[in-house]
Specification:
2 domains; Rossmann fold; Spermidine Synthase, Chain: A, domain 2; 28% helix; five-stranded antiparallel sheet; 276 residues
Length: 276
């Protein structure tokens, strides 16, 4: 008998993957959590029925949410990841030798623990001595730590459940205040094909908070439509003004100096979303 996992990505769109087995299932204090083994994408982390990451394509998301900002800031020393309990963004952050501390602010301890057990290639950096785990409300952590971070990455699910507050104007204002005077924020901002309202909301809520904000794109097969967006907001440094010679040589599979700039080359329909 064939076994398939299906994610209802929208009321009219789904992703189906043939699976070999379910490795783990539980209901945590915050969400339904599962790890399944798929034939196409390897092990897959699923939260509340939504694919968070897979062994096959995770590198795209984690490299692109991390390295654009870290190579835009001239000397990132302290970096916060809000969400991202799988540890993939942390793994990419500590590839930068300038980083003295990478803090993971994850509300659900079980996401961290299950990722360490079943997704070690993604979560392996969580035990690095430069990494600090802060299990608790990331919104409160941001609010309490003013002027501390050079870079803050909002590695959230879509705006449902505990993640709703991570898309608000009030939160972006708190992020601004938690950053140093040259600080940079990046947020995953969903698909320009099926989440246009989310992109509009993020850019509207960032307007007037950060002087620089830009959208960039990457291709992530297991996310709705396969075309994904990130939004970078900066107090001082423009990612398009980076000297290519200053982009640090690091081990990546997707991100390159050319991709750093090419991701900002938006199709017309996407450019219109952020310019409305």
């Amino acid at each position: 008998m064939e076994l398939w996992y299906t994610e209802k990505q929208t009321p009219n769109l789904s992703l189906s993957c043939k699976i070999t087995k379910t490795l783990h299932m539980e209901k945590t204090d915050y969400q339904d959590l599962a790890v399944i083994d798929t034939l196409q994408y390897g092990r897959m982390l699923v939260l509340d029925g939504m694919v968070m990451t897979t062994e096959s394509d995770e590198f795209v998301y984690h490299e692109m949410i991390s390295h654009v900002a870290l190579n835009t800031h001239p000397n990132p020393e302290r970096v916060l990841v809000v969400g991202g309990g799988d540890g993939g963004a942390i793994r990419e952050i500590i590839k930068h030798s300038t980083v003295k501390e990478a803090v993971l602010g994850e509300i659900d301890r079980r996401v961290v623990e299950v990722s360490q057990e079943y997704l070690p290639s993604i979560a392996r950096a969580l035990t690095n001595p430069r990494v600090t785990l802060e299990i608790g409300d990331g919104i409160e952590h941001v609010r309490r730590n003013k002027g501390k971070y050079d870079v803050i990455l909002i590695d959230s699910t879509e705006p449902v459940g505990p993640a709703v507050g991570l898309f608000s104007r009030e939160f972006y204002q708190d992020v601004y205040e938690a950053l140093t005077p040259e600080g940079i924020m990046v947020a995953q901002s969903e698909s320009p094909f099926v989440n246009q309202d989310v992109i509009r909301m993020i850019h509207q809520n960032l307007t007037g908070v950060f002087p620089i904000k830009r959208l960039y794109l990457a291709s992530i097969p297991t996310y709705p439509s396969g075309l994904w967006s990130f939004t970078i907001a900066s107090k001082k440094w423009d990612p398009l003004q980076v000297d290519p010679a200053n982009i640090r040589a690091i081990d990546t599979k997707y991100y390159t100096p050319e991709i750093h700039f090419g991701g900002f080359k938006l199709p017309q329909f996407v450019a219109e979303l952020v310019n409305e």
